[in-house]
Write a structure and sequence with these properties.
233 residues, mainly alpha, globular, transmembrane helix, membrane, transmembrane
Length: 233
């Protein structure tokens, strides 16, 4: 519930901040985009650490946590890098805001599907708990990349392309994703270590992660349906 409240309490916080940072740093745009990416990873929303925390809690060790965060953030970064690389051709054709409700519903269904697989796909002893499947995390990341943050990368690319050569435009999406990955890794590791130390029994933590993933999936579907009936500005 705390994660859901955090998501809802930060509407469109990144867009104005991103514009300000990029405008202020001018020729140092590469560092600016990295900073914006780090801020993106630090803020809780439906496509950052509230998701990677649930996957992280299902890992047996720190190495698994880093891998889970990297797979999810890597999928995001891949989509954003390709998008920024193609921005010249797509600049006049994209209106990604209309995709948001569909993305929320698809991401929610993916989360519920992963949670159900991990719960009902368990076999044998109760403590033989499944960790999150990296293939499913990757698919989830690819779907999540087309959410609201896709629009942020689009805005950054449009703002920066006039200052650079087209060959370098891919770095906008890449640096944004890289910064987000760094921030999410730090947060998820801190939470993972704190929870494991407090609870002690990893199987209990993994069970909590699955439950949280399912609840957040229902929330995302509800958010997507709500968006259909909310008039856009």
């Amino acid at each position: 519930m705390a994660i859901i409240i955090a998501i809802m309490s930060m509407p469109e916080v990144l867009e104005p901040l991103a514009k300000y940072i990029v405008k202020s740093m001018g020729p140092y745009w590469l560092i600016a985009v990295l900073i914006v990416g780090v801020i993106h990873g630090l803020k809780p929303d439906e496509h950052t650490w509230p998701i990677t925390v649930t996957y992280g809690l299902m890992q047996r060790n720190v190495g698994g946590v880093i891998a889970a965060v990297s797979v999810f953030a890597g999928a995001l970064t891949l989509v954003w890098t390709l998008m920024s690389a193609l921005i010249g051709e797509l600049m006049g054709l994209l209106n990604t805001s209309i995709l948001d409700p569909y993305v929320d519903i698809i991401v929610g269904l993916t989360m519920i599907g992963v949670a159900a697989y991990l719960v009902f796909g368990r076999h044998g002893d109760y403590h033989d708990v499944k960790t999150a499947d990296y293939k499913l995390i990757w698919i989830h990341g690819l779907a999540a990349a087309f959410g609201g943050d896709f629009f942020i990368v689009l805005i950054l690319t449009i703002a920066i392309v006039p200052m650079i050569t087209t060959d370098l435009s891919f770095l906008v999406g890449f640096m944004f994703g890289f910064g987000s990955w760094l921030a999410q890794t730090v947060i998820v590791l801190a939470i993972y270590k704190g929870v494991i130390k407090s609870v002690g029994d990893w199987s209990v933590v993994a069970e909590a992660g699955r439950i949280a993933l399912g609840i957040l999936g229902l929330f995302m579907i509800g958010l997507g349906i709500y968006s259909f009936f909310t008039p856009s500005d």
